[in-house]
Amino acid sequence: MAKSCLVSRTQTVPREDPFLSSYRLLGKELGRGKFAVVRKCVELGSGKEYAAKFLRKRRKGEDCRSNIINEIAILEMARFSPYVVDLHEVYETNNEIILVMEYAAGGEIFEQCVADQDEAFTEKDVVRLIRQILQGVLHLHTCNVVHLDLKPQNILLTSSNPLGDIRIVDFGLSRRVDTIKEVREILGTPEYVAPEVLNYEPISTATDMWSVGVLAYVMLTGVSPFQGETKQETFLNISQVNIQYGQEDFEGISDLAIDFIKSLLIKNPRKRIRADQCLKHPWLSSPIESEPLEEATIEKKESEVEAPEVTEELVLLASY
Ligand SMILES: Cc1cnc(Nc2ccc(CC#N)cc2)nc1Nc1cc(C2CC2)[nH]n1
Question: Is 188 exposed, middle or buried (0-12, 13-18, 19+ CB in 10 A)?
Answer without folding.
Answer: buried
